[in-house]
Amino acid sequence: MASIVITPPYAKAGLQPPEQPATLSPVYIAFSEENGKKRRPAVIICPGGGYDYCSEREALPVAYRFAGYGVQAFVLQYSTYRKPFPMALLELAAAVDYVRAHSAELEVDPDRIAVCGFSAGGHLAASLAVHWNHAWLKEILGDGAAYRPNAQILCYPVLTAGAYTHQGSIENLIGTAPTEEQRAMVALEQQIDGDTPPAFLWHTSDDGCVSVRNSLDYMNGLALQGILFEAHIYPMGGHGLSLSDETTMSGPWHDNPACAPWFDSCIAWIRRGYQ
Predict the structure, then answer these.
(1) Residue whose C-alpha is closest to residue 79's, from 16, 132, 136
(2) CA dist list (Å): 113 to 79, 85, 95, 167, 268
(3) Which of 33, 66, 104, 150 could pair with 71 in a Cys bridge, judged by C-beta atoms 3.0 to 4.6 Å apart?
(4) How crowded is residue 226: how many other Cβ atoms within 10 Å of its Cβ?
(5) pTM of the predicted model, to two decimals?
(6) Cα–Cα distances in angstroms (integers) from residue 140 to residues 90, 96, 267, in the given order
(7) What count of other Cβ atoms lies within 10 Å of the Cβ of residue 268?
(8) Cβ density class 102-125: b for 16+ within 10 Å, e for less
(9) Tens digits of per-residue pLDDT, 40-73?
(10) What are residue 231's DSSP bridge partners?
């Protein structure tokens, strides 16, 4: 299936449409009666790249891995490089809306759509998870039920805008001189509420690019609100591991057997209904 152009109502948010439109690339299996034709869980993948670009290593290879486990997968190529907040967020919301609206033809269970993000893509995925029910977003996009994610999968994510943030990602998102209100909007551990969907997180404790404190502070926020989550903190491996094996490595440092089990753990979590 060809990529789908995603066009949220940018003008309602006071934004100019990007020169390069956002696209959603499906990687899903059309199942037959032989192997159990039914609606299946879905995941919309947001690659990382510091809100500067979308990493190829965290895109289609991950989608194919999910598809091989019966999870219908979609890769969002969202707007990057100094595209102001909430442009990418609107694009992800529109992607969730598209998959839910076309769930029958895509063989997707409309109540089992997760957003998945790596690094800065994790910030984008979590942004929708925490903001989907907020009044300002509903004013732009309408009823939040259409674009609410049912779960969030966050892989070595950027989540905070404070002392432990990844400064480059936040500057690409809100500039170098943001207001306190802008900074609070993208400090996602501060935006969690009782309607935030369940989460699966993984990080490495020695990540020198995006501090593990991003995940730890977000986990604390989830716990305070009583939101279910599963988390895996691996002792070492650094940043940008993707699938953590030779499938997605750009160098030997990305082939880390200690972290590779994150994917099987995530599949088990999806199959348990995000519990």
Answers:
(1) 16
(2) 21, 23, 11, 30, 15
(3) 66
(4) 8
(5) 0.97
(6) 9, 15, 33
(7) 11
(8) ebeebbbebebbbbbbbbbbbbbb
(9) 999 999 999 999 999 999 999 999 999 999 999 9
(10) 201
